[in-house]
Amino acid sequence: MEKGKPHPDLYQVVLRRMGLVPAASGIAVGDTPYDAIAARKVGLRAVGVLTGGFSSEALRAAGCDLVLDRLADLVLHLDSRH
User: Fold this and answer.
1) With contact defined as beta carbons under 8 Å apart, do 42 and 15 qualify?
2) Is residue 3 part of a domain?
3) Burial class, 78, CB count within 10 angstroms (exposed 0-12 / middle 13-18 / buried 19+)
4) CATH, residue 25
5) Interatomic CA distance for residues 28 and 35, integer angstroms
6) Which of 16, 39, 52, 64 is the one with CA 20 to 30 A from 25?
7) Is 80's pLDDT higher than 70?
């Protein structure tokens, strides 16, 4: 990988290694708009966490479907059927 975020190459490698095809079956969690932009470029849904110093509005504008105050809050949103 020669490029950084928001280039999606890291997500592409992870998806390939995990065998997650289509990408829509996965969720990327990050704390910057660049994480969300990169995730969206490969078809992943994005969850933002307010630990990176970016506002909820900035994370949503970058493509986050959900924005959380802290990572631990993610468990409250997980669907046990998936």
Assistant:
1) yes
2) no
3) exposed
4) 3.40.50.1000
5) 8
6) 52
7) no
Q: Which of 48, 46, 45 is nearest to 58 (CA)?
A: 48
Contact present, 46 and 24 (Cβ < 8 Å): no
pLDDT tens digits, 16-67:
888 866 777 788 999 999 999 999 999 999 999 999 999 999 999 999 999 9
Q: Containing domain of residue 61, as a range?
A: 9-77
User: What domain count does the chain have?
Assistant: 1
In this prediction, residue 12 has a pLDDT band, given cuts at 50, 70 and 90, of confident
In a domain, 68, yes or no: yes
Q: Is residue 35 part of a domain?
A: yes
